[in-house]
Amino acid sequence: MSIMDALFRQTARLSATDWLIDAVIAAGAFGFCCLQLTLAVNLIIPDEFMRRLMGIEAVVPSALSLLVIAATTLPLVVRRKFPWAVFVWCMASWGLLQSEMNGIALSVAGPLIALFTLASVRSRGEAVVGCVVACLVFVFAPAPPEQSRILTQLTLFQNMALVLAAAFAGYALHEHQERTRAIEERAVAAERSRESEARRRVEAERVSIAREVHDITAHSLSAVSIQAAAADRLVDRDPEAAKEAIAEVRRTSKAALEEIRAMIGVLRTGEGPAETAPTQGTDRMADLLAYLGGAGIEASLDEASYNRAVVPAFIDVALYGIAREAATNIVRHADARHAAFALSTAQEGSATLVVDDDGKGFVPAGAPAGHHGLLGMRERARLLHGAFSVAKSPLGGFRICVSIPLSQKEESHD
Asked: Which of 72, 100, 243, 394 has its CA 20 to 30 Å from the CA of residue 177?
């Protein structure tokens, strides 16, 4: 049943062009055999005396000979639909009708094409079986009674060589088609894998963003809930305190909205360390130092003057993101051996990050902002109304300085 199913699938793919090609091949084989029947002997042995000496008579095409040739060639029209049936028919017709050809060997073009088709569309084992069957038919088929022994042996040798060539050519085509099909299937599978991986990454990023936004804004929303509950309790017995609680709710909610807006602005994942981990704050600066150390860069961190408790979470996240991009640039572009990070809130009302390295390729502050990822860092600072500058470092390379005000400008939403 599986063989029949495979055969049906094979033929179901045949188009009108395929059928036309098979019809042309069958007609061409028929014409070739007719031409060989009438001309081959005279072309090979033009002398009539030699033909008589070898026992070969001039061939005159008759209705019977044309019928015999048709029996071995015209079924090739359906050779790809019924490869085994056509092969068996062509071989049997050739073997049974060979003795009727009045002293001349019948052309094997039809059986050879059938064998080639069988080897190209079926398995290797079936191709071997077909080749063996063809050889046996050619060996044991009765020779025309008028044909000489020498010519019979020459014809048999020729036919055996043609059988092997046809079977090998068909099998080679089959292997080529199988390899092409396998390559196409692998390409399709790889494309599906890439699409699946892209969907997985998008989903993971969605989960990461949701977790990050939740971590940053949860404390603000909790404060809003607490202040709203207090206002509800005080609205009747202490209106002034209730108003103050409501004002605090307004300030906290606006700060929460600002954090969400800032979070969207800074979620620009770089190529630095731990880029697939949830975005966190400067408490992960040790990861940057380890990342630089793994790249052969000696790094230090000075955060003695940094009071993380007074820095809003979204500003802390922005500073860490800028530090991470700076670390990535140092590894990829600076060719540095030393790097220094400094965090500070000593300056009144602002948080400052300074990154120094002893690498090469210093670019003045007026250089294009997109140089080595500076655009991303500048945008992060600008989004939070901060200052961003690039200067020559005392270490000899870059100095990146970022200062972000802790009290963000209040925007009108009317």
From this structure: 72
